[in-house]
Amino acid sequence: MRSNYEPVTDAARLLAAFGVTLPVEPDAEAAPGDERAAFIVAGAGPQAGLLGEVRVGQLGLLPALAQPGAHAAQARECRVDTMKSNPTFRENWWAGRRCVVPVERLTAWSYASGRPEAWAIQHVDGEPLALAGLWNEGMGADGKKHLSFCVLTLDATGHAVYGRMSHPLALEARMPAILPADLRWPWLHGSLADAQRLLVPFAADALHAAPLEPADTAAPRRWSAEPDLFAEEWWRSALETPHRKPARPRAVTRARSTDAPGPVTSDLFASAGDVHDTPARTATS
Length: 285
Fold this sequence. Notes:
Layout: E1 3-7, H1 11-18, E2 36-41, E3 53-59, E4 77-79, H2 90-94, E5 98-110, E6 117-123, E7 129-139, E8 145-155, E9 174-176, H3 184-189, H4 192-197, E10 207-211, H5 232-240, H6 272-276, H7 279-284
Parallel strand pairs: 3-8, 4-8
Antiparallel strand pairs: 1-5, 2-3, 2-5, 5-6, 5-7, 6-10, 7-8, 8-9
């Protein structure tokens, strides 16, 4: 699955939907190339009326000893079926480092029309969505703390929305693990067994999906590193290039020959004397 997450950046919307506020200062300075966003963790202890505490970190889970700003695009998403065994994620799952990622909308690529189209997926009532994720923190060689997180994904085979958001060559459709409002608290503060039971596909009828306007459509990440006939550059140029009907081929007129028919079969190799002595010529003489 290739999804983009538009984080909730408005403090009023974050407070109204999740009961939390953005920190006054970021937890750490953003390194070049980082995609930083807010996520909610359980915190030191649950407080009445508060879902948890807000952190700001890099999208893409980093190992505990990674340098800040290290490339972690490959760890943006974690499959639920491997989160307990994959070395990149398992320590965070077993340590209970679960988080809620507030997003305004999700964007995914649909290939149902035969060409890639960017679609926006939002809640039907316009409220922010809550994604289930894992997070991590560590100290780099510079002694500074850095935070990172990833989003958990589920099998979306047969899902009315995300079932259409998969590449034709993909073995299965995937979707983010979206938490309904009443399950966000159990996800953060419940036991491991209870939290795992909450990771089920979000109801399709609670999602609104529609194609983005062309101005909002951007090429998928690292598209140049993944050659594909559906690449945006290919189909966009095909749409902009005027289609012309192929020219009708001209009829070829063969000139009639006035020469006598040439020899056939063995007559090609016959001598002049042999030709005059052929039975056909004797019959007409």
